[in-house]
Amino acid sequence: MAGPEENPQASAIALDSYDTALCIIPPREAWPTVDRLRELYDKAYEKWPPHVNLVYPFIRPELLRQAAASIESVVSRTGPEETGKFRVSLDSADVFSHKHSNTIYVHDSNRERCSRLSSLRTEILEDLGHKEGDYQMHMTIGQSEDASSSSHKFLLNKVSLLPPIEWDVDRLYILVRERLQVDSTMTSEMKIWGTVDLATAQLSALDIPSSLYERRKTAVADSDTGEKDQLQTRPTYYYEAETEMWLPYAPEPSETADLPKTLVVSSYNVLAEFEWPPSRSRYPLLLKNILSRRAAADILVLQEVTDDFLSHLLRDEQIHEAYDFVSHGPPDQSDVEPLPSLLNIVVLSRFPFEWEWVPFSRKHKGSVVAKFSEIGKWEDGQFFPLVVAGVHLSHGLTDGAVTAKKGEIQRILNYLSAQYPRNPWILAGDTNISTSSYSIDTALNKKAISSQTANYLSTIDNFFAERKLVDAWAFARFDLGEPSDGEYDEMFRKEVFEGEQGATYDPSSNEVAAEVVGSGFNMRPQRYDRIMVKGEGVLAITRFNMLGFLKETVEGGLGPTYASDHWGVRCTMRVGEEKGVKPSLGEISSLVVPVHLKKATGGFENANELRDVLSRLHVFPSQEDVKTRQEAFALLQSLVEDAVRNPLEGSGQQRRPALVVVPVGSYGLGVWTPSSDVDCLCIGPFGTHTFFAVVTQRLRRAEGDGVRIMRRVKANTGTMLELEVRGVKMDLQYCPATSIAEHWPEVLRTRPADPIWTLSTQTLLKLKAIRDLDYLRRSVPDLVKFRLAHRTIKTWAKSRGLYSARFGYLGGIHISILLARVCKLLARDGRSDPASVPDILATFFHHYASFDWKNEAAFDPFFHKTRLQYTRTTREPLAILGYFPPSLNTSHAASLPSVRTIAEEFKQADALLSSPGAAWSALLGGSGAVDFLSAYKSYIKIDAQFWGLSSMKGAGFIGWLESRCVLLLVDVNRRTPGIHARIWPARFVAAEEDGEEPDTSRDYQGHYLVGLDKLDPTMGRDELKLAFGSLQTVLRRFEELIRGDEKYFDAKNCWMSASVVSQAELGELQVDRREWGGYTPGEDESDEEEEEDAVADDDGAERQDYVPLSKKDRKHGAADIVVPRLEPGKKFRTAADVMNRLRWDPELDSSDYIVGYLDRFVGPMERALDTWKLEQTDEEFIPQHRILSFKQRSTGKIVWERRTRKDEIFGSGVE
């Protein structure tokens, strides 16, 4: 824009000073509208007020008096009617393009109004001896660099959305520059030197130039103390249906309303459009996700909101219905300002609120802090409203970005602590905190970040924990056992690193994120988005879920896509003051053995060295292993589905039956090793016999696809097929449960007391594996750390001869339960720094080394919160309690000798972990069986032989013998209490020469060895001699037991013996490497298991009118019992149903009930319900079909009876 030219006819005063200016300035009440943008985009903000220059540059400061006189003269000559008040309305936006930058401004588009100002300017210039040049009245809003860039166009559009800035110009301002120093930096400020009144033509000159801003902003770049930004803080808007407009909300003093019972808060980064013009193709899908059931909330915090999207959002009628209040009004509404930045935080709510802006050190970064007058807590007669802070922290994994994040976190937390120390808080939004250990380690190795930055990222949660902020995701996992909706089963099996669990930003799964991030170490999943709660006794987290999973093909897209690169998060809370003990531990807090962190030291501190040792031991599966098992599972799943679908297609059935095939065990938990089998459970509506008949037929036809049926066995939980699928050993079990299959997987989230779980004991036993597995996966704080620790413990247990549940030692489920409770209790301990894997392992061994196994039970207090539905008996030396019924104690095979061995091994491991100079290889790389063979002077040698038998029958004999070994240990301990007996959980065979393959013929000879040691070193010769005699008696009894079983032992082709031998008599032995498959025999296959299956298979069919007794029952004079007929359609509840109800219903006291049952040899008997055994391998196990009645002890009243079909528990019997 050209400046004025000199007028040769007048004595010209030079207009060459940039230290003065003649301008007009709007009234102060109009300043915030433009200053909210100028603060962010105008480099002259606070140096200049909002203004429209008439003449700039102006005259030198020393000549201002002379120039002022000229201006007075012009105004006086022109007259009030010409120069009096005139209207200015800055209603349009435009841009000046310079060589290296651009100036974006607003101006008055009305030519008539502009001419008044232009005429006055012309008169003044002429009086100063200058001619009028080109002039465009304007008020600068900001600057940009490249006029062709999207950022420039977004800013120009934002300025055009400003409401018109209107005022009556009644004076001219003369400004003068004053130079000053702020925080060691030289700057300047234009101050008022004087004004000229247009009505009176009078100059009002100031003795000291006056600052236009009441106070300058203090520099806060290096400060961690947050401050409220009065300028950027705006009123909340509410929707008025009558005018169909969003209007400013003015809170009025009123009585505090009743608190809502629940509060739901959601947070969602909607991903801004960065190219101009902004595409609106994702907007409809974003709205669908925001309005979806998963996202429905009372308070919604959005990040990366642009002017265009907010205008679209607030036009939607469903948004009007869902949210009454919003922090920022729609920018396209004529009286509403645009959003301050390109990326903004916006809060929507059902409840009224006020909010304030807390800026961070980086421009455009800050927090919207909202106060809700209708939600909060009362304390000492004062109400403290809920405060919700919405954040969107700086992005990036560099030293500078992480330092910025650190400062931003400290600033908002310090602000909340200073301003609202007693209020409940919620911090919600996109933290941009990198959580993936892979990303952090890679950035460190590439020197993208320093070790100091990496260390800070690993302890960043300290800031939140110190302010008592609870991460809703973490709390929901280990305290509530609730995963987010986005954590699918495949997430549990694919390779993830520490910190990637619960990811809300996952380029590997979200194609929008993949497109944004490109490639590199940032492609890993990150848990960026969080909701953190400081409940102050009034907010209690009850649920957490993720949102944003709806996909559609957007306009111009090639296929279905997510709406954003982030998934949102939602937290549900109970509102109301809670008193008393923490609900997470409830009444059983006194039963919980506390866990105290023990830091790993010396050579055990390095997790990478641990991984290296495990890798050398081939503990981790290779990519090929992973792929092979995935393909094998997929093939088995398709074959099973095909098997049950084809017969139904010919039957005319229209609806496809509900059928579920899921992995369980180590594969399902993600802790499997290359040598692990894959355990599979199928749940469906068919009878057990029907299922295995059609599936077996289909599997046999798939032999060409690499499928082989190894054998069919009866396990504790029913029939099981041992398979080999493309070289992978797999076990397939089936559970007939129609209602479970039809409601899968949502049924896993229902309460244990839900009626849907009112199933037979056998059915519940089959479902226990997947229910326990599901709870573990969704409740462990960090599943990646858990998996590494689990594999380590399992490797240690195997090397020490402790990994075998059938021998009374530890199995996978025991390690899982013991480890999970340590991880959870450590996480709940409130430590600011999360425990590393070495720390978890050191704590694990130290905790259980001092655990009182005799008197204490190991259980998960986050699952068993209020009442432990378990009574320990004297016959249970080890109590490791699982999660779901029917069997809580998972250690039913444990014996006193095996528990003694476990305890001793824990102590040795703890001592080793504390030894200076020791390393992971010493803990995990032991020679195990070799050490065992030389550890004892005497052994019990159980010799097992067979000849002329197939491998299947031979395995049956060996497996059955193996299952009886626990009884031998029990008897040895009972008869010779001064002797400790330790069995090695594997068979030994004669050592083979190098390179010799194991014998796979039909003849076999192997040995089980039990090491013998004195419990009391002072035992004398006579005591030992007496013990030896007792031991010989025990061995003879054991031989008689084995040889007397006609079903498994046939002297024609098998033999066993048990004897005491010295170490020297053992000879050269090695562990049997023969692959037999794990055989776990169940009860008699002829009737009992079949009857249990029949009960489980009955899905509403009408029962018979008589109960046929077995031949064994008739020995006691019993006959078939005629019973009353039930009403048509009525189903008499089984004994298993009644037992489950009595055991698990909190309204009923199980200790007040007695079970009447039919003993095979004695006849009718009674036993207390709490002592009833459910494990089929237990000596005292009694099948459910032998239960006759249930009686209430306190009243003597029979509440359920099979013979008469009486049922006062469910009311299902004959009335």
Quick summary of this structure?
By secondary structure, the protein is α+β, with helices and mostly antiparallel strands. It is 31% helix and 23% strand.
Describe this structure in words.
This protein is of the alpha+beta class and 1215 residues long. The N and C termini lie far apart (100 Å). Mean pLDDT is 86; it is low at 216-222, 486-493, 579-585, 648-654 and 1077-1122.
Describe how the helices and strands are arranged.
Blueprint: E1 5-6, E2 20-24, H1 31-41, E3 52-55, H2 64-78, H3 80-83, E4 86-90, E5 92-97, E6 102-107, H4 111-127, E7 130-131, E8 139-144, H5 150-160, E9 165-169, E10 171-182, E11 185-197, E12 203-210, E13 237-240, E14 245-248, E15 262-269, H6 283-290, E16 299-305, H7 307-315, H8 317-322, E17 325-326, E18 344-349, E19 353-359, E20 366-379, E21 382-392, H9 399-419, E22 425-430, H10 437-445, H11 451-458, H12 461-466, E23 470-471, H13 472-478, H14 489-493, H15 511-517, E24 529-534, E25 539-547, E26 568-575, H16 607-616, H17 623-649, E27 660-664, H18 665-669, E28 678-684, H19 688-701, E29 707-715, E30 718-725, E31 728-736, H20 738-742, H21 761-779, H22 783-799, H23 812-828, H24 837-849, H25 896-913, H26 920-924, H27 929-933, E32 938-946, H28 951-975, E33 979-983, E34 988-990, E35 1004-1014, H29 1021-1043, E36 1054-1062, E37 1069-1071, H30 1088-1097, E38 1106-1107, H31 1111-1114, E39 1121-1122, H32 1135-1144, E40 1153-1159, E41 1163-1168, E42 1187-1192, E43 1198-1201, E44 1206-1207
Parallel strand pairs: 15-16, 21-22, 28-31
Antiparallel strand pairs: 1-7, 2-3, 2-10, 4-9, 5-6, 6-8, 10-11, 11-12, 13-14, 13-17, 15-26, 16-18, 17-18, 19-20, 20-21, 22-24, 23-24, 25-26, 27-28, 29-30, 30-31, 32-35, 32-36, 33-35, 34-37, 38-39, 40-41, 40-42, 42-43, 43-44
Helix pairs in contact: 2-4, 17-19, 22-23, 22-24, 23-24, 24-25, 28-29
